[in-house]
């Protein structure tokens, strides 16, 4: 019976039967707003829709040898990495390991990566959600990308000139960094990040009660990657964003009930958007009006209740996404359990903090969009695009018309609803977090792919869909399978990212190698030497494709061996590798880079090392031997 029903549903969705029920509903939603959008008064014919979609797909075609218009940076989800894609082609260009271990590059294996991760790093996993690019005067400056690790309460910084992580900070006193955004104006001085889960303070096992439990809003100095200050809040923090004045940041906040169970967190009809007055917080810290917790030296201020540092704006229960419109006028809080989004006027916040208006007076619209609104992005033309998780749709709506409707005017603020596949979470339009939002492309990151790709077993990929939003109608042009649940992405113009073709020899990324070589009297660019220091052996070698400068070295069983390889090639894309067989070590050495790896030579005998990055026609012959003498 169930099989027959399924077959009937498949027949109903078949192209020869016209619009499926779901497509029909999506089309009628479009028709219902046709008068407001100037799209006409009838549903488009199948032929017209197909022609429009084909035109949009052609715009996304990047032919061989052509370059994409945008860089896209995707969070790698449970992989703990950042992925780089070209948009609109959606071709994957690079993976940047951050919180994970990567045998291709040696991240988590090399000494240089351990300088960033910590040589005593106990975490082999990460959970990346929100990648965001540093800004100057509200525009992407292409210097850094910042990413969170919810799993282990960390924030990382990636240098975009070499696409490598250069700093990782563990946030003290809190658990689970989730929402992350950057100060936009006058520049990215702070990385704002939300700790989600409430914990007792101090969390040392002496007290498990909720009476002294809370979480905090955190500001990380973007230059030093030190935690600048923390703000105690009521509730659990979710997502966050900042304004275009540098004065305010805001976060969605759920669990005003202070519950520890699912049902309990949904009892109240309203939770909050918490607005943080950055200037007042800085003044409090400067005046010494803070405390510290445990061994941490980070200033902690109290933003609970009637604090002068925060305002708790009531919004429908369990809000999720928090997004700033590119014109700098509004914070948009997405309802999740409510079918609405709450539009907060940023120009009312001064009066709110001066107690001249009531909390809800800052809300200037609350449009009803559909079931499960999670995140909103923008086209720079006054429209918001909100993902509807339960409806599996994106809703395009006009902010100005939503405000008019809130004020009693009879106006339809919804422009279009488009089916996506399936259950969308984040979405992101090109340049949307900056003043330069250009309204060309929209990426929707859907949590389920179901039947969109070839089956690959019980675990399915997610589905990232590319949508053309350059015209009045949204047009789906691409499905892209992704692994391990990327949560969010960010799109920037390709001219905003300036990458190096080869390393500078004084690059700080391998500063520790230069420092050790100097102590050993070694010139990294010329010497091929073995330095013994007790049972510690440092092997320095150069490489020029297809040969290492040292093809054999001897050590004793039990020695701690560190191999430094300096790639002397100056030709772009001639990357070398170093892999010591049966020792669990491998690494990348790009042109003019020095990389190093340390391991224990505990097996007597001959052990070959070889280049594991193809570099030359004689690549297979590029190798050498480590001779390990018995102790």
Question: Could you explain the architecture of this structure?
Answer:
It catalyses: N2 + 2 Fe(III)-[cytochrome c] + H2O = nitrous oxide + 2 Fe(II)-[cytochrome c] + 2 H(+). It is an enzyme of class 1 (oxidoreductase). This protein has 631 residues and is mainly beta. The chain is 13% helix and 39% strand. The protein contains nine helices and 40 strands. Strands 8, 9, 10, 11, 12 and 16 form a six-stranded mixed sheet that branches. Strands 31, 32, 33, 35 and 38 form a five-stranded mixed sheet that branches. A hairpin with a 7-residue loop joins β8 and β9. The protein starts with a helix and ends with a strand. The N terminus is likely disordered.
**How far is the N terminus from the C terminus?**
73 Å
Shape: globular
Q: Describe the biggest sheet?
A: 6 strands, mixed
Assign the CATH topology of the domain at 171-366.
Methylamine Dehydrogenase, Chain H
Number of strands: 40
- Tell me what the CATH architecture of the domain at 171-366 is: 7 Propeller
User: How much of the sequence is in beta strands?
Assistant: 35-45%
Structural class: mainly beta
Based on CA atoms alone, the radius of gyration comes out at 27 Å
Q: What is the highest CATH level, the class of the domain at 171-366?
A: Mainly Beta
* Low-confidence sequence ranges: 1-42
State the share of residues found in helices, binned by percent: 10-25%
């Amino acid at each position: 019976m169930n099989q027959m029903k399924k077959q009937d549903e498949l027949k109903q969705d078949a192209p020869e039967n016209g619009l499926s029920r779901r497509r029909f509903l999506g089309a009628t939603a479009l028709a219902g707003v046709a008068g407001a959008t100037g799209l006409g008064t009838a549903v488009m014919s199948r032929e017209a829709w197909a022609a429009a979609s084909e035109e949009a797909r052609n715009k996304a075609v990047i032919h061989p040898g052509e370059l994409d218009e945008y860089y896209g940076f995707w969070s790698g989800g449970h992989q703990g990495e950042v992925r780089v894609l070209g948009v609109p082609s959606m071709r994957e260009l690079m993976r940047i390991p951050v919180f994970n271990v990567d045998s291709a590059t040696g991240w988590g294996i090399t000494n240089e990566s351990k300088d960033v991760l910590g040589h005593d790093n106990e975490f082999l996993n990460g959970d990346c959600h929100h990648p965001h690019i540093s800004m100057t005067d509200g525009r992407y400056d292409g210097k850094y990308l910042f990413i969170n690790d919810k799993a282990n309460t960390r924030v990382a910084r990636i240098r975009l000139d070499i696409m490598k992580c250069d700093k990782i900070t563990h946030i003290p006193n809190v658990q689970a960094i989730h929402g992350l955004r950057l100060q936009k104006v006058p520049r990215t001085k702070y990385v704002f990040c939300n700790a989600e889960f409430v914990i007792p303070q101090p969390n040392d096992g002496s007290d498990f009660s909720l009476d002294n439990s809370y979480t905090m809003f955190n500001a990380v100095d973007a230059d030093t990657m030190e935690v600048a200050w923390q703000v105690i809040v009521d509730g659990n923090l979710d997502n966050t964003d900042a304004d275009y004045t540098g004065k305010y940041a805001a976060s969605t906040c759920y669990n005003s009930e202070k519950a520890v169970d699912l049902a309990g967190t949904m009892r109240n009809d309203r939770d909050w958007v918490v607005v943080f007055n950055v200037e007042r917080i800085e003044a409090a810290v400067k005046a010494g009006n803070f405390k510290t917790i445990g061994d941490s030296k980070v200033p902690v201020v109290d933003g609970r209740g009637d604090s002068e540092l925060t305002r708790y704006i009531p919004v429908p229960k369990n809000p999720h996404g928090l997004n700033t419109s590119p014109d700098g006028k509004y914070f948009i809080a997405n309802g999740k359990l409510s079918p609405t989004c709450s539009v907060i006027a940023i120009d009312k916040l001064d009066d709110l903090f001066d107690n001249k208006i009531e909390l809800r007076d800052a809300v200037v619209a609350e449009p009803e969009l559909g079931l499960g609104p999670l995140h909103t992005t923008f086209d720079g033309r006054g429209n918001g695009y909100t993902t509807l998780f339960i409806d599996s749709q994106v809703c395009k709506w006009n902010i100005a018309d939503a405000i008019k409707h809130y004020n009693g005017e009879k106006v339809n603020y919804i422009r279009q609803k488009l089916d996506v596949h399936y259950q969308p979470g984040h979405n992101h339009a090109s340049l949307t977090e900056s003043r330069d939002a250009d309204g060309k492309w929209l990426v929707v990151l859907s949590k389920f792919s179901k039947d969109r790709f070839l089956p690959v077993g019980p675990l399915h990929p997610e589905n990232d869909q590319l949508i053309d939003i350059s015209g009045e109608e949204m047009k789906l042009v691409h499905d892209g399978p992704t692994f391990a649940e990327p949560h969010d992405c960010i799109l920037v113009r390709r001219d905003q990212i300036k990458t190096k073709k080869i390393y500078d020899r004084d690059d700080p990324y391998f500063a520790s190698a230069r420092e050790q070589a100097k102590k050993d009297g070694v010139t990294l660019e010329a010497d091929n030497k073995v330095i013994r220091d007790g049972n510690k052996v440092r092997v320095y070698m150069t490489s020029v494709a297809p040969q290492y400068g040292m093809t054999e070295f001897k050590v004793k069983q039990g020695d701690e061996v560190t191999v430094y390889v300096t790639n002397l090639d100056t030709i772009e894309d001639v990357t070398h590798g170093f892999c010591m067989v049966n020792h669990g070590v491998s690494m990348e050495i790009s042109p003019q880079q020095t990389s190093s790896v340390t391991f224990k030579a505990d097996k007597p005998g001959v052990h070959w090392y070889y280049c594991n990055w193809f570099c030359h026609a004689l690549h297979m012959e590029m190798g050498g031997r480590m001779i390990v003498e018995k102790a």
